[in-house]
Amino acid sequence: MITDFRLTVFKTVADRLSFTRAAEELFISQPAVTKHINELERQLGTPLFRRHGNTISLTEQGAILLGYANRILDMYRLLNDTFMEATDPINETIRLGASTTISQYVLPAILARFKRCYPGAKPILFNGNTEQIEHQIADDRLDFGLIEGHAGNRTLHYETFMNDSIVLVTSGANSSIDKRGTNLHELRHLPIVIRETGSGTLDVVERALSGHGLVLRELNVQLQLGSTESIKHYLYATDAYAFLSTQAIADEVAEGRLRIIPVAGLTITRQFSFVTKHGAFSRSTETFKQFCLTNRNQ
Asked: Dihedral angle at the C-alpha atoms of 15, 16, 22, 24, nearest 10 degrees?
């Protein structure tokens, strides 16, 4: 595979803001990471990171380089995909697991493009919540997973896939709250619908609320439903509210069937992550992971 490993090291440090975590993820030593970054800084003639004791942050020039690095590494991935398709086709079954939001709203278009590039590949997709996917991988029933929410199993290896936002939404016909939105105090009294226990979306929402001193039991929770689609259809018929991924509601918001309600002081973001067992590696799953990274925003 053709790539620029020094740029890969830089991007990993920039994404993680940690030399230690970058070294662990890339399976190299921390001094090796430092050497690569120092060499880049020497070649470019400018610091790329600010050191603040045990933490680091990107300099202005580092942020500029990260933008270029993302584009350059994406081009390398496209180059490798093109030549691998012609010279080294995949003819294997790939047992994939994806948590609900990803499997319904992110993966289908990626899988369609992947099958066009690798017609011999045989992806099998298991759909479940984050907790279920982690258990399936830990038990060797899946090769590879894409999950949402908190990375909580120490026997598994997690890598960032893409970022996501979770917002408060209601029916487009519900006019009880105007465009100015609501606040954390009023949020306690709104009729809320939530996902099932074990859902990555619910986990992220609970963590975000706890950061503002709120716990789920303090909200006016009407019921729990087992899928985003069931929640959306419930919202259409009621004046209830729900926290949903922007990936899941783009069409409905554009069509006016749902609308986003700003909550003053509350921003909920999360990362979608790749997950595998530590030490597990196959060319087919690595190819699919790189393909996901290349095609995630298309």
From this structure: -130
CA distances to 166, 170, 233 from 256, rounded to whole Å, are 18, 10, 14
- Please tell me the least confidently modeled range out of 97-101, 114-118, 267-271, 279-283: 279-283
CA distance 128 to 135: 10
Average pLDDT over residues 48-67: 92
When the pLDDT of each residue in the chain is averaged and rounded to a whole number, the result is 88
Residue by residue, DSSP assigns 246-279 as HHHHHHHHHHTSEEEE-EET--EEEEEEEEEETT
Position 86 pLDDT exceeds 60: no
Q: What CATH number matches the domain at 163-269, 3.40.190.290, 3.30.70.60, 3.90.1150.10, 3.40.50.300? A: 3.40.190.290
* 3-class secondary structure, 87: helix
Residue 252 backbone phi and psi in degrees, to 5: -65, -35
- Describe the crossing of helices 30-44 and 19-26 by its angle, rounded to 10 degrees: 110
